[in-house]
Amino acid sequence: ETGVTQTPRHLVMGMTNKKSLKCEQHLGHNAMYWYKQSAKKPLELMFVYSLEERVENNSVPSRFSPECPNSSHLFLHLHTLQPEDSALYLCASSQDGGYGYTFGSGTRLTVV
Amino acid sequence: DAKTTQPPSMDCAEGRAANLPCNHSTISGNEYVYWYRQIHSQGPQYIIHGLKNNETNEMASLIITEDRKSSTLILPHATLRDTAVYYCIVRPHQTGANNLFFGTGTRLTVIP
């Protein structure tokens, strides 16, 4: 347990489904991040939230919709995904002025 | 753009020191060197970071050359649980959300 909890750990969804990934941190951090890790590819930064405001969206398709209701929670809402969106989705948090990121264990998503 | 170059893979015998090199010839004066590792199907884990002085913690040692163009992460007594992908990242230390970009890393295999 790293202090960043992601649920669910595994998710299988059809291309027409709507689902949400949840991330929760109790470290008192004020920045949160979503990363995507596809097979045999480096981690890709998707979204960045600082003080609950989205500060970066790295050209992510609109079928991925993030939400940060407070500094401890981060969601990634998914709809009409494609099979190529199957990947490990990782959440991380950090503290303003701090040095390290703390990552969750990820959600393994399979789109069928 | 990860701005670092690492060998794609390395092997190390259990109990021996693992020395993982990283080239960062374009590093700027305000950029730190960070090391993370990712054990299979888990989120990355922070290991250590440094600016110009050598650093040591309970996990590893970081040796940075005087010109700061390269560094070496040392795991003094590698165990099987150290088998992972190790990422070397350079980034400035700054306030606000600090984006962390990962390259392809070095896959370290510790051999019994």
Please describe what this structure looks like.
The complex is a heterodimer of chains A (112) and B (112). Chain A is mainly beta. Chain A is 0% helix and 57% strand. Chain A has no helices and eleven strands. In chain A, strands 2, 4, 5, 6, 9, 10 and 11 form a seven-stranded mixed beta sheet that branches. Chain A has a four-stranded antiparallel beta sheet with strand order 1-3-8-7, with no helix packed on it. In chain A, strand 5 and strand 6 form a beta hairpin. Chain A starts with a strand and ends with a strand. The mean pLDDT of chain A is 91. Chain B starts with 8 loop residues before the first strand and ends with a strand. Chain B has no helices and nine strands. Chain B is an all-beta fold. In chain B, strand 6 and strand 7 (70-75) form a beta hairpin. In chain B, 0% of the residues lie in helices and 46% in strands. The radius of gyration of chain B is 13 Å and the shape is globular. A five-stranded mixed beta sheet of chain B has the order 1-9-8-3-4, with no helix packed on it. In chain B, strands 2-7-6-5 form a four-stranded antiparallel beta sheet, with no helix packed on it. Chains A and B meet through strand 5, strand 9 and strand 10 of A and strand 3 and strand 4 of B.
Features:
heterodimer; A: 112 residues; mainly beta; 7-stranded mixed β-sheet; 4-stranded antiparallel β-sheet; 11 strands; 0% helix; B: 112 residues; 5-stranded mixed β-sheet; 9 strands; globular
